[in-house]
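Hi there. Long-time user, first ticket. I'm pasting a complex I've been working with (about 567 residues overall). I'd like to know whether the download I got is complete or cut off, because the file seemed smaller than I expected. Thanks.
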Amino acid sequence: MKQTLVTGNEAAAWGARLVRAKYIPNFPITPQTECIETLARWSADGELPGTYFDRMESEHSVMSAAVGAAAVGTRVFTATSSQGLLLMHEVLYIAAGMRLPIVMANISRGLSAPVTLWSDHNDFLDQRDSGWLMFHAENNQEVLDMVLQAYRITEDPRVLLPAMVNMDGYVLSFTDEPINIPSPGQVEEFLPGYDPAHTIAHGRPITVGPPVLDEYSIFKAQNHVASRNALAVIEEVQDDFERIFGRRYHLVDGFMLEDAELVLVTQGSMSTTAKAAILEMRDEGIKVGLLRLRVIRPWPNEAVAGALKDAKAIAVIDRNVAPGKGGIMFPEIIETLYNLDRRPLVSGFVVGLGGKPQTESKVKEITHKLMDDLAAGRPRMEWNDLEET
Amino acid sequence: MYKIRIHGRGGQGAKKAAKMIGLAAFKMGKQVQDFALYGAERRGAPVMSFVRINDDPILERGYVDDPDVVIVLDRTLPDLVNVAEGLSENGVLLVNSEHKPDIDTPAEVKNVDATSIALDTIGKPIFNTTMLGALAKFTHIISIDALNWAIEEELSNYPEEMIEANKTAVRKCYEVAK
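Hi, the file is complete. Here it is re-exported in full:
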């Protein structure tokens, strides 16, 4: 397979092109802009036959239009970032509640105020409870692969929920990396055209999203069950994906976990740097490994617990913060481990807000603090960013 | 791993230069990563871009703070920005300037008047591509052939004369740089 040098934004645009999304409502925002520019250029050049590239006046309208188009059975793609994602917020719940398999790339960027253009994960994690499936890529290849897989997963009749594919702004969105771009024929084999069983279009019209009384809780329960169903579907699609594209993904990405006494839990692009640091620390004899969270919703509790249960101590590295509480994934990891017979020590570190670089030396520093915590038998919750400022 | 940092001003093509180095190294079979770092930038503001080149997959990300080569597209930037940051005595600092700039660094400082070369060959001050000829001369990390391919690839939407003029400027810069 031929490799091509593309940015994360272009990788997401390639995903939309290869899945033959028929409707792309959009509104530009840094750092997503280049994804939409790429699709705009292809649309103008006739490279997206039969696709309506629809420029809109706000992200709220973008997601509303996406809901309408998906409800009549159209395959929809869009992309946003940060404040744009927040402006979509109320409509995200509607997309999930109406069980519409929309796929959206979010190019994560910290939230205002003050203004930052650089990445952290608060925009994405703010949508955690919206009912969407939430995936987080580590590199540009995974961005493209996740978009392809997201359609197969969301359009499965057992799921029928929208999916968000997150990538870190700048670090992936504006960075060229060599990736494999599959042929249209390969993608068509993996993902046939979208032929939904239920739509509000002609034929057998149905009602979606009406006011309900006692049934409200049933709908929410169905949303939950559908999201849990996605865990099995995510694993099922890997056989076809590997057969056609030669790559395979798991619910969680484990790195040097077999004999790891210390485990770092990460998300997104900082995982790459952390893996480099782990290789160096392994040379020094430190038994450290990494667990990268790539499926955030549905929460893969068994895969996470299975990967972490033999560790002595765990550092949850959150590139986000819930003010008044701490890192967002920190308590999720603790909850996942709470009912184990033997619980590892879990420390939490908030890092990298507003794009602050996560270097190898930072990762080593966190690992050494975790060793101190293990020796003292006392976990910590630390705002690691603040030391230099 | 080989690391390059480019300092320019918004509009001078620092991002494009990084992309072309990336493409050229990619063409030579290397693993590459190139990107630009900017905030609310506008024309004239100091900007940076970066390239990493390696035989194996690249596990570093973000800002390059220990470059092997720094390229400075604008000779007034050293007054504003610490362009030599992280350069060692094995490093090269390459400045677009008619005169050798006075910069405090253990690295070898080289200058080439890419602006004049660009005006002579392209007819416009397009010195971002032009400077890459000097990079090829001093570092051998990329070849002129690979650079020519990168120019054709990256400027494929431009008229043929513009592509040829850029290639000529790169070759001229390669020849005169010393």
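A couple of notes from our side: Residues 3-245 of chain A form a domain with the Rossmann fold fold (CATH 3.40.50.970). The two ends of chain A are 46 Å apart (CA to CA).
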